[in-house]
């Protein structure tokens, strides 16, 4: 069965701290895709990154970085030098090639970055 | 270069009324997905449509809910005889092509409140 687990419900940090959001997934497919989305207080869902199951390279985009490890079925997200504008709910999601492309979501991690 | 457009942003209905939620996909996108975000439950897939076809409705409640994506015009999610439990945020996403790898871009959501 497919499942995405984000064990951290809420995280609170002080500005400029680094923070890592954990994501663990379960799937039987060998071909799948992992995503992170951001939901700021305004409520929209903003796409951040997509990773396919055959590409384990870590990715960095500015202050954001992602660590994909198939051996532990994890796709963790790190924000370096956090800022107040990073305060949001972050969702990890899974899409399987054999499952009609629907996204299976974790419950999200609410990140509060305090000044 | 408009993104996914959902309207209305907020919708208030009394129990027993009908709710119609609209979604216009991004230009060039012919695949539409609907998700529901309930408090404490996270985002759940409801239905996946292509133009004039329902591809996967495995997440739709069997009664009162229907969706369409006509040849012309927006996709519509229709909820008949709403009940309080239907209160949620409903998100629409679109993608360009088939395939799990394709990124789903989301609208800002419609927040339905049932009184």
* CA-based shape of chain A: globular
Total number of strands of chain A: 12
Radius of gyration of chain B: 13 Å
> How many strands appear in the DSSP assignment of chain B?
11
Write the layout of secondary structure elements.
The complex is a heterodimer of chains A (115) and B (115).
Chain A: E1 3-5, E2 10-14, E3 19-21, E4 24-26, E5 32-39, E6 46-52, E7 59-61, E8 64-69, E9 74-79, E10 88-96, E11 103-105, E12 109-114
Parallel strand pairs in A: 2-12
Antiparallel strand pairs in A: 1-4, 3-9, 5-6, 5-10, 7-8, 8-9, 10-11, 10-12
Chain B: E1 5-7, E2 10-13, E3 19-24, E4 31-38, E5 42-50, E6 53-56, E7 65-68, E8 75-79, E9 88-95, E10 105-106, E11 110-114
Parallel strand pairs in B: 2-11
Antiparallel strand pairs in B: 1-3, 3-8, 4-5, 4-9, 5-6, 7-8, 9-10, 9-11
Short descriptors:
heterodimer, A: 115 residues, mainly beta, six-stranded mixed sheet, four-stranded antiparallel sheet, 12 strands, B: 115 residues, seven-stranded mixed sheet, 0% helix, 50% strand
Report what the structure shows.
The complex is a heterodimer of chains A (115) and B (115). Chain A has 115 residues and is mainly beta. In chain A, 0% of the residues lie in helices and 54% in strands. Chain A has no helices and twelve strands. In chain A, strands 2, 5, 6, 10, 11 and 12 form a six-stranded mixed beta sheet that branches. In chain A, strands 3-9-8-7 form a four-stranded antiparallel beta sheet, with no helix packed on it. A two-stranded antiparallel ribbon of chain A has the order 1-4. In chain A, a hairpin with a 6-residue loop joins β5 and β6 (46-52). The model of chain A has no long low-confidence stretch (mean pLDDT 93). Chain B is mostly beta strands and 115 residues long. Helices cover 0% and strands 50% of the residues of chain B. In chain B, the strands form two sheets. In chain B, strands 2, 4, 5, 6, 9, 10 and 11 form a seven-stranded mixed beta sheet that branches. In chain B, strands 1-3-8-7 form a four-stranded antiparallel beta sheet, with no helix packed on it. In chain B, a hairpin with a 2-residue loop joins β5 and β6. The chains are: A mainly beta (115), B mainly beta (115). The interface between A and B is medium-sized, with 28 and 30 residues.
């Amino acid at each position: 069965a497919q499942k995405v687990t984000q064990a951290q419900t809420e995280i609170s940090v002080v500005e400029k701290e680094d923070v890592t959001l954990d994501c663990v997934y379960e799937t039987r497919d060998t071909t799948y895709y992992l995503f992170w989305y951001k939901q700021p207080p305004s409520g929209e869902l903003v796409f951040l990154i997509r990773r396919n199951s055959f590409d384990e390279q870590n990715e960095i985009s500015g202050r954001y970085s992602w660590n994909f490890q198939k051996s532990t079925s994890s796709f963790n997200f790190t924000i370096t030098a956090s800022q107040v504008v990073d305060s949001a709910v972050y969702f990890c999601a899974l899409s399987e090639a054999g499952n009609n492309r629907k996204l299976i979501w974790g419950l999200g991690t609410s990140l509060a970055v305090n000044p | 270069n408009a993104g996914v457009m959902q309207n209305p942003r907020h919708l208030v209905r009394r129990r027993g009324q009908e709710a119609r939620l609209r979604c216009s996909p991004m230009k060039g996108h012919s695949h539409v997905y609907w998700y529901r975000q309930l408090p404490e439950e996270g985002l759940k897939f409801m239905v996946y449509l292509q133009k004039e076809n329902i591809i996967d409705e495995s997440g739709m409640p069997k009664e009162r809910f229907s969706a369409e994506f006509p040849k012309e015009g927006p996709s519509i999610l229709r909820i008949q005889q709403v009940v309080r439990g239907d209160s949620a945020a409903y998100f629409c996403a679109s993608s360009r092509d088939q395939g799990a790898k394709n990124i789903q871009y989301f609208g800002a959501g419609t927040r339905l409140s049932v009184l």
